[in-house]
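Hey all, quick one. A colleague (J.T.) asked me to put the oxa(dethia)-CoA job into the tracker so the inputs and the structure tokens live in one place instead of scattered across chat threads. No bug as far as I know, just bookkeeping. Sequence used:
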Amino acid sequence: MVELPLRPCGVLIRGCGSATPSRSISNEDLGQRVETSDEWIRSRTGIGARRVVGTNESLIDLSAAASSAALEMAGWPAESLDLILLATSTPDDLFGSAPRLQSRLGASHAAAFDLTAACSGFLFALITAAQYLRSGAMRRILVVGADQLSRWVDWNDRRSCVLFGDAAGAVVLESRDDGQDDLLGFLMRCDGSRGEVLQLPQIKTHAPLVGEATHQCGGFEPIRMNGQEVYKFAVREVPAILEALLDTTNCQAEQLDWLLLHQANQRILDAVAERFSIPKTKVLSNLANYGNTSAATIPLMLDEAVRDGRVQPGHQLASSGFGAGLSWGAALLRWSGPA
Ligand code: UT7
């Protein structure tokens, strides 16, 4: 039985980590598969290459490597974790991949479950984790965003296959009762009525069961995307939710150190930055190297910028995730880093 504190606790981000597959596929490489060019892909998306999981790697391998790096940065043993939240739309096991990650890390005291919200998954998982920490019910949580969309991309569809890649990113969060807080505000949204513009749908085949009865077969079709509609959704909703976030947190755009958006398309990042007059030097982007890695983009980008020294303790970051669902969200974060 956990005794809950009377006042809500704060949430500190104590470490981060990331991992990407070793195999990089350049735009030129993709040109051998579909009719496209480096010039088209770079000018429309900002993407130059993407990583793809090979035969000897898995989503769990990437998640475990990212998680271990985050735990190491925080200086925490895996046994000290109370919960592992794995944001993914591409689990190795439909019953959930988080328990495999728990076992791989040796996080023997942690509960573990998957959370699915496509490209908004990491931000939604971070916000979900924060509720357990705010209540004081838990002290330490690992949040992972990991996806292996290369399994589900139609590699013959040039309109979508050039966008996606595989990766994992992780953060470790701590509950604090001394007034410190790194989650300064958040908003979450969903509009399922527009979900058909980006889907990874169940296959629609049936097989005989007994007598007249049939059963539906398991399995999924490749990703189906109406790129233009997703683009319009992103450039309309992301600025709107960020504006609402800044309003509710009484934060001015000039006070932000970094814009940490889901890495979907450089044109989307540029449009959002322009809307708030945020200089390009404050817009974090690694699209050129990794493309859109779905739930992994935000922690992958954060980890890169923390490790190369751009993001410093005390910096404020406005983050937004958006994608299939349709779902989108935003959070105003502070980076504390290790104690
Ligand atoms: O996490 C969210 C995931 N999804 C997204 O972020 C998608 C958001 N949307 C986008 O990023 C953009 O809509 C795309 C990059 C997908 C497409 O860019 P666009 O400027 O909207 O291009 P379009 O779909 O309007 O296509 C323009 C032309 C078409 O040719 P026609 O019909 O005008 O002759 C396409 O067939 O470009 C053609 N095209 C390509 N050409 C070379 C589409 N894909 C390619 C390609 N290489 N890979």
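Adding what we noticed when we looked at it: Residues 169 and 300 are 5 Å apart (CA to CA). The chain has two domains: 10-176, 183-195+222-334.
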